[in-house]
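Forwarding these from the shared drive since the link keeps breaking.
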Amino acid sequence: MTQTPDRLAGKVAVVTGGASGIGAGTVERLVADGARVVVADIQGEAAASVASRYGDHCRSITTDVTREEDVAAAIDLAVAEFGQLDLMFANAGVFGAYGPIDKSRMPDVDLTWAIDLRGVFVSMKHAARVMIPRGSGVIIATTSPAAVVGGIGNHAYSAAKAGIQGLMRSVAAELRYKGIRVNAVMPGAVVSAMTADLVLGDATAIDQAEALLAKDAARRRPGQPADIAAAVCFLASDDAEFITGQTMIVDGGLTAIGGNSPFTRGQFAEPGAMLEAGRRA
């Protein structure tokens, strides 16, 4: 991906779930584009490791997004260390509760929603707390194709990701008059430890997961964290200053295309027209 070192120069970001996968890839791109970043993740040691790669451009903090005080502390750290907050990337999430609807374990469902939806809500709340007095800022949340397509995500996850889209639009309607933009990104299958765990049952088997996902990828390769990071950095930049209340879909065509066109191959390889009662022209 082409980096633009001055695009986010002087900007300050907080990335939840920033210690791995899409989050870590976005931290890398944000720094490359000139931003300073707080890496906020429940994996505290991993967050510190990511932050250490970028020296004075990064700080880290252990953050459990189910705890409002943790999210507030991550945002306060950005202000204390870097003086402001320009971007809140509410990215932390898990696949969470799975299994048939009639056998659902509600404590697992509640935890999934606490991480995937409530965590985004409090991230927006505390980002707005800091951004409203300044009259500027960008909030971005991570949703999923499971929000709009049935059968590709477990029930609790799908509900949470759909909720993020509704929440995003509602908050965008309030905050656009205060100079704050609110959007979402919708990744498809992205190579990460979480995806490796999902498809192979081994979070460390990232290379094998990448090879497996590539077999069915519409673009002949699976999505990478850098693909999502590029979208986030665009939405965070002044190039996107007239975009709010929107979901940017970055999924290789999964939700929009559905499948390969059958009307360009086989008996339809040559141009023609299908008319009434089977007549061809």
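-- next protein --
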Amino acid sequence: MRKMIKDVMTLMLPALMLAGCTRDMALPKRVLWYNQPAAYFEESLPLGNGCIGATVYGGVKTERIGLNEATLWAGGPVDTYMNPEAHKHLPAVRKAIFDGDYKKADRLVRKIQGAFSESYAPLGDLYIDMGHDSIDTAYRRELDIRKAVATTRYTVGGVAFKREVLVSHPDRVLAIRLTAGEKGALSFALRSTSQLRYTVSAEGDRLIMDGVAPVHAEPNYRGDMDNAIVYDEKNGMRFRVIVQVTETDGTVVSDGEAVRVSDATEAVLRVAIATSFNGFDKNPGTEGKDEKALAEGDLKAAGHQSYATIKKHHISDFRALFNRVKLDLRAAGGQYLPTDVRLKRYSKGEEDRDLEALYFQYGRYLMISASRPGSINMNLQGIWNPHLRPPWSSNYTTNINAEMNYWPAEVCNLSECHEPLLAFIGRLEHTGSVTAKTFFNCNGWTCCHNSDLWAMTQPVGDFGKGHPVWANWCLGGAWLATHLWEHFDFTQDTSYLAEQAYPLMKGAARFCLDWLIEDGRGHLVTAPSTSPENLYKTDKSYIGATAMGMTSDMAMIRELFDMTVKATVVLDVDEAFRSEVNAARERLYPYQIGSKGHLQEWYFDWADQDPQHRHVSHLFGVYPGHQITPETTPALSDAVKRSLDLRGDGGTGWSKAWKINLWARLADGNRAHKLLRSHLSYTSPDPSAKTRSGGTYPNLWDAHPPFQIDGNFGGTAGMAEMLLQSRNGQIILLPALPGAWPNGEVRGLRARGGFEVDLAWEDGRLLKVVIQSEKGGRCELLYDGHRIEMTLKPGKNYVWNGRS
């Protein structure tokens, strides 16, 4: 457990002084459960330790466990000089923009493109053939997200069978325990397959799978094409899986392709997985690590411990993170129904506040399972992928998805889980500095629309084949760099700020300073500029992507500049650079309110080609930015509300999640909750079923559709934002509490400035707040017209009872 200075300030409203946030509050179970096996990937139950990902299907005749490893990607180190003279086309593109010839600009900007990203690869599947054709009674498949253990139970011929599956972070193995309720009744066979090139061997008590990933996998959206998957076993990423049978009283034999256990009462399987990944800049074939030795080492280390010990270590490690935050919305009845049934009932309008609380914690569960210090940052599907050519390559899409994955990290008290993304930003600087020079003739560094394991940063599009509406966006570096400051703002770790964050922020800001140009009206703008994945319609009816000074660009640069200036003040460095940034910030093209009362997305008051487009990038300044608030910029806030009304409440899963956060920041809890209900609409995993845009699959994964995990994290962040907000030294309590949550309690949310907050409320009114600080500091509490300024000092308690 983290050490925390016990600076405690207690704020109670007068009539309710006895109510409180109990630090050991009892809560309903946090379990997903089902009364049938999973038929589809989107029904399986995910487990992970940041490196190994597993999806458990809970089969009766055959158990299937999908396997992934976070570093198993197609490809190898990126050629940073793939289009070294791309920047020479910029003057012509800019001239076309300023001449108003947007069609020509859209055509010319395609010359400023490079290759597509690579794809996250599926490792394979482990099958446990049980041979049970039918069951008697009592089938139950569940995932306890407080323990990160998946369990399957059923009865055959009067004998109870049970399987437990976990993926241990401290012991670095996937562990499975199988038991039978009658001595000698357990028999099964182990086998494995992969969509990649692989071989399987079985000897004694071990099943071993070796394989190699492609050196290239075309994005799935390019359709059927020649050489979509290319192998080169000399240069591709290698992997090894070792499955060992231990702790069994049965007979173990192998036949070269499978391992068979018979006449047992119990058995434990330990699974070690490793790849040859040796860094983003190392060829995984010729310069890769020894995956065989790595897997053998992990298996040997775990082999010294019993399953009971591994499970104990695993649960202790997991709970140390998960138990930091607890949420109770004072309604627990629905937990006695299967999760898919609950979700369907909820989709039809039934109230289930406990399902909402479960969903909130499930987002935290997924983050702990998929993102740990030292691991690779989460991709579009976290670490779980069954597809050889996954949707959108299961890569890092930096115009929203890669960032949304980490929105709940700090506020939901999982700061350590943020570290993989922060480390990834450091890798992007290496390739991004070349991209800045060769594609944009700028100093500093940037990242464009897509990236991958190899820290690719250049514009994608296959050298002119990609539409500029997505291929040529280049502000990913600026957006990602804001995460560096956010981590500091929540932790107040000045060493991290000085040594890791600020140099990267400065480089991203340097790129923006060089990228900005005069608009001819005294303002600085970006050109060429696009608004992520959206198209404008000019007053002359041209539908295009490329222009100048898109609102999203201006908002992201403004946010990065503000944070960079704050960093220079905290560290007391770079006064000259601070002045340069401040001067440029003052000249940025300002927000514009359009003729419909909306916040303009485009430099001019143009129409949207799709008025209800899924992206709301132009509203960045509200969330995740901090520039537009109801208190400080009421006119702009009203314009944002109008924009959201015009966009509508539809959209993909992650789009709805973003809108939840936006309405929460605008202090409209009921509208945020309405979107949450829509976000949690049941979506069938059957690919033949007609599905609405957005929603939630039976295993509570986000439905884009298809599955994208960013919507889960955006939904969790949005719920936190409804309960607690913080900015500019202020902590805002219950800023967007919806009427649907009249009573509740939350513990352990984090606020900027290094504070931790517990809240309790009843009949929609705050009962009590407890604030702790690790390092002490100033804060200002805001609630319903109350404003309290204070300085928390180490070792001293502060009490306010509503009368002072």
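The chain has 18 helices and 35 strands. The chain has a mean pLDDT of 94.

- D.
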